[in-house]
């Protein structure tokens, strides 16, 4: 009897533990949580304002919208909402297109719908059949799906839905995630596990996670995904893999998500049996046209190619004495008959070491302006070096008025602490988008360059290098989700503020309770500046660890390329520190408009956040704070550490309102981040002190180890390489 009782007790404990794991808050739901509205008054209002749903049509996309409304409203309102064919009472939600819904067609919204285009939508409070209703109308079914997520977001964020008058459409045509995923499922610069794409099980097995991925992107209006790494493998273009690509494309299509592939320039040789990949060779041109036709036979709505060429060892047209336009145009001609596009990356540098790598892309692409086919976009990183914690905007923005320029941001945190550091990147994205190129006078912002309004381009786009992997919470660090979210929201509307996006994400991911929102928003809005402070303050850049880019490495030198070292960029000596990019140095500033040259070229007017990017500055130069450059560096590095400690304190405040699992996850990573911030501060200050010969101000925390200790640290098996 005792044995039986113990057995039953053990079984009960097992069942309870299993139940706990089922209910565990692991971050998988992202921002699409749909938990019941906690404000009793707001809940009562919503229940009155959403009494029934009218959505007609049986297409896969409308079925997804119907399912989303069913699950979302049941969760948020705590009750089932009935479906009807006509509004029968006040509070009906009417959703559809004029083609799919006679009810929507009868509302005669044609003029308003024309203004929102193929992907936009309307959310209107208006009478339908004499009953006050909410109307979600769009020109296409994907527009209805996008509007569905917007409507649910209003409830998730506790907005007033009684008098809706929303007209929303994307400011950019192509809103694309770039996955640097390899066919062996490793992810270059990925810090959230392995690739989502299980090529071994495709095409036969469609993981539920593929659908959840597409759903999350649809909730943001992201409409494209590049499945494979820009350091491309030609095998993905073979029949063996195209059937797998087709299976993913079929799964994504109802969510409005197009598939793109990276094209390895030497594919005609590697998988085609040709002797050359010369883009002007007729046999090569024919090979690519045939290959494109084959791809479209598997994926009729294939988006096109993303290409990295003549960069970091990747083959390209320059191997044959041709230029980037020659290569891009060959591929553009191959996909043009089916409406495909080519996104040709401008991140290039050749085998010859330049006097300043920041000048390379401009030097190669500016002379080619106007020579690209109309279905080519040149994809340009936000800055001229390589996704540093802070860079001035790339000089190519505004410099190629005859060529559509596509923005490339990095969502994965290759240079911002990878998956152990909290760094909300919306302020960084916005900083670049709002930067004024002055190429057509004041107000010629980067945003106007990429959305086509500055130079009258209709082909527009934005790309984000994804931070997504098969970790249960998708992004490694729970707060990494905020960067996926922020990229998607800014891709749809680059005028949104970082603060408003942060508030949305917090409301949808954690709570609308001010006791949670305010501390977490403070964490988000200070996090990127904290990372800049403890890594690369005042315009320092590219001083991270060798190869894996993890941790500090300002001492890196004597590598096979000077421009892959740290000393090449900071140029510290006994006189001062910084890279002189003015007329007395590399003159990279000459690539910018005169107004920008004037501002950045003068020590007195150069923004201090870019000071050491453009100038070699004396250690004793006085800054706006009244401190010398050396002392200011010491304070900035110390401020970064303190900002992380402030984030820890803010996170502690929300413990009573959050689940244990997610709280503990972030708390642990903040502890690691504080340790890594001190590592950066101490290693960099000790190293730069060997040149400055000046003491760290007495009131600041001092390093606890020697410089030799930090220089001998050699982290092994860092992910993402």
TrEMBL record:
Cellular-component GO terms for this entry: extracellular region
Domain Glycosyl hydrolase family 67 catalytic as annotated: residue spans: 155-474
Biological processes per GO annotation: glucuronoxylan catabolic process
Active site (catalytic residues): 312 (proton donor), 386 (proton acceptor), 414 (proton acceptor)
Ranges where the Glycosyl hydrolase family 67 C-terminal domain occurs: 475-699
GO molecular function: alpha-glucuronidase activity; xylan alpha-1,2-glucuronosidase activity
Keyword hit for NADP: no
Catalytic reaction equation(s): Hydrolysis of (1->2)-alpha-D-(4-O-methyl)glucuronosyl links in the main chain of hardwood xylans
Keywords, alphabetical: Carbohydrate metabolism, Glycosidase, Hydrolase, Polysaccharide degradation, Xylan degradation
Its EC number(s): 3.2.1.131
InterPro entries: A-glucoronidase_C_sf, GH, Glyco_hydro_67_aGlcAse, Glyco_hydro_67_aGlcAse_N, Glyco_hydro_67_C, Glyco_hydro_67_cat, Hex-like_dom2
Domain Alpha glucuronidase N-terminal: from-to ranges: 30-151
Pfam family, one: Glyco_hydro_67M
Entry keyword ATP-binding: no
Family: Belongs to the glycosyl hydrolase 67 family.
PANTHER family in alphabetical order: ALPHA-GLUCURONIDASE A
Complex formation: Homodimer.
Protein name, UniProt field: Xylan alpha-1,2-glucuronidase
